[in-house]
Amino acid sequence: MDQPRSDQSSAGALYSVAEIRAIETESQARLAPGTLMRRAGEAASSMALELLAGAKGPVLVLAGPGNNGGDALECAANLADAGVELDLVLLVPDAPAPSPEAAQAMARARAATVRWVHQIDAGRGYRLALDGLFGIGLARALAGRARALVQQLDTLACPVLALDVPSGLDADTGAIVGHDGVAVRATHTLTFLGDKPGLHTADGCDHAGRVRVERLGVDPAQTAPPRAGMNAPALFRTQLRPRRQNSHKGSYGDVAVLGGAHGMAGALLLAARAALYAGAGKVFAAAIDPGLGVDPTHPEIMFRDAAGFAFEDRTAAAGPGMGDSAVATRVLAKALEASKALVLDADALNLIAASPDLQARVAARHEPAILTPHPLEAARLLGVTAAVIQADRLENARELAMRLNAVVVLKGAGSVIARPDGAVAINPTGNPGLATGGTGDVLAGLCAALLAQHWPAWEAALGAVWLHGAAADRLVADGVGPIGITAGELPAAIRAALNALVVDHQAR
User: Fold this and answer.
1) How many other β-carbons are positioned within 10 Å of the β-carbon of residue 224?
2) What pLDDT, on a 0 to 100 scale, did the predictor assign at position 195?
3) Each residue's pLDDT tens digit, 70-106
4) Could you report the per-residue pLDDT of 387-398, keeping only the tens digit for each?
5) How far is CA 102 from CA 4, 32, 67, 423, in A?
6) Last-in-domain residue among 192, 211, 230
7) Which of 1, 37, 255, 322 is most buried, most CB within 10 Å of its CB?
8) CATH code: domain of residue 90
9) φ/ψ bin of 360: left (φ > 0), alpha (ψ from -120 to 50), beta (otherwise)
């Protein structure tokens, strides 16, 4: 499934559960009781009617025992008033209402023309299902009847609208709650008060569907700004300048890709080609195994023996196919000391993870540095497992950025970009076509090219990750993939996406 696309501005803020709770508490203190729940029910019923597109049902509503269930009951009452045929399943039929507002919602639903059922009737031909089982407060894996309902919901051939967050999904992390947990696989999520990071990374990319934010008449900007947001060109737009006529190759920097041990020259070439297509003035391939002397497809790339290469005044992208030999370790240490700006990927990250000395050298650098680990490489750097990394991608990316004093790109579904001060962004572009060998090498070369063109590290990482995903999306839109996209197809698509952004920025 493609990653979810947000209907709000993709540069929007992302709020943690704690931040949403603070917004909710502040709002309830100045609004009449029940206002937020009524507004949530109105927004949900309005979106449900939109998805029904004139059909009168039947619609399935699943309501849990908490306030998320209250939102679902308000929605059900509104839909019944609109003449929609409804089946309503209460997770706990005799549970006391958790709040006066939820009790009022239950009374409204009881008074409406609703068919109360105990189980999902798979033969009813539902036109839409609404998930109001659990919201952002879930702390345990779904079990028992809740688990069974979610598994049944997955078998229905109709759109599924989740209210606030798909039940079973952690709104902060995007992980499914609990060991061996399950979560609703929604086609649409209507999330309340503010967008949540878990809807856009990890399992959220497969469970949230299209995300729409409903503020409920509340301005979250009145509270402290969140530390997370969605990546978008607006965040790096200042770097999207058209090239001056009076410029030359020296104006756009030198990139040196360090890698290419025996049998892994392809990784070196992919990174070098990406740097070339992303606009670096000159590109060097500093090869650990100097046997390959030319790229016949791109003779513009200059090959050098890594052992004797001078990294001074150049931006280095270290790691693609570099291996773990003594020569690789020695040249990596040299690049850490000498390069002007630095991208660390793949084998370079593994060598650093195994060496406290190299870690200290990275952390002590004053020049810009970007690290681009996948979850297993991040796990090695932090001394944990990949499962631990995936359980909280945002916090682990923050921790890694702080430890190594660098901008970190934690790759994966909803790639997380973090900087040492704790700010993070989640990237919305890309698709499963990127799940193939070599695409990370392309990203490393792209990051290096933007650094060489004097983009600050934060903006270079944001821009590179966005463009990398946008290139894959462009290929799919053109009928290439997502199955079978190759890393070698990305550089040309990156070039097209980058030039389109520059033209768009110039036209504004």
Assistant:
1) 10
2) 96
3) 999 999 999 999 999 999 999 998 888 888 888 999 9
4) 999 999 999 999
5) 30, 14, 6, 36
6) 230
7) 255
8) 3.40.50.10260
9) alpha
